[in-house]
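Tokens for chain A. Residues wanted.
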């Protein structure tokens, strides 16, 4: 479903279950020393999705390692994003000549736990929720949007972005969210616009910034 939120220049692949035969490159397996079997399968399935998406771009399979903040390290000339939650793993990739940065996130469909909600939402977002249309876990949509924002932001800046560093507004009818960043940065990166989808037990959000 994530491909419905992204432009045609982006190659996507998703899985609803972990594959039994999914394998890792030795360099990737080394990242998982001490991890549980469930974590290994989740990681391997997400990497497999990424390789399928890369293959559609004509990019040969290679290890997808991690950077200092556990971000995936993509081949030269490629941008991408990976997400996983209960029952869903996905990857999205594109050539950097077409897409400057990508951010995708998947979450289970349901309200945020109270403790998480207090850390994630700002006053303006809580105020919007009081009059928001019923039937959608909008706090979870905002949380997912902020996850996508960070995944798109970090490759551009190399800087941390907290939940309270972005104010998200939502257009429910259009399936669009807009984020205004409260950090000091260059003008092109002070605002992000993305899309969201709530369907089949999932909340999905995505950002693709055109190059």
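Reply:
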């Amino acid at each position: 479903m994530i491909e419905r939120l992204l432009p045609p220049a982006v190659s996507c692949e998703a899985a609803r279950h972990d594959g039994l035969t999914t394998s890792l490159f030795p360099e990737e397996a080394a990242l998982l020393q001490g991890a549980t079997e469930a974590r290994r399968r989740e990681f391997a399935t997400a990497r497999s999705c990424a390789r399928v998406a890369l293959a559609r771009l004509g990019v040969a399979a290679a290890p997808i390692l991690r950077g200092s903040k556990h971000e995936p390290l993509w081949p030269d000339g490629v941008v991408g994003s990976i997400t996983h939650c209960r029952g869903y793993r996905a990857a999205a990739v594109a050539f950097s000549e077409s897409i400057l940065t990508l951010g995708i996130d998947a979450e289970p469909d349901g309200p945020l736990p109270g403790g998480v909600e207090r850390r994630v939402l700002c006053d303006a977002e809580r105020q919007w929720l009081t009059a928001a249309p019923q039937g959608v876990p909008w706090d979870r949509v905002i949380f997912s949007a902020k996850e996508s924002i960070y995944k798109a932001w970090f490759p551009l800046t190399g800087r941390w972005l907290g939940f309270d560093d972005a104010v998200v507004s939502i257009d429910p009818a259009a399936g669009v969210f807009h984020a205004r960043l409260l950090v000091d940065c260059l003008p092109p990166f002070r605002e992000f616009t993305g899309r969201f989808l709530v369907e089949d037990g999932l909340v999905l959000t995505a950002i693709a910034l055109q190059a």
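The mean pLDDT is 93. The domain at 2-104 is CATH 3.90.470.20 (Ribosomal Protein L22; Chain A).
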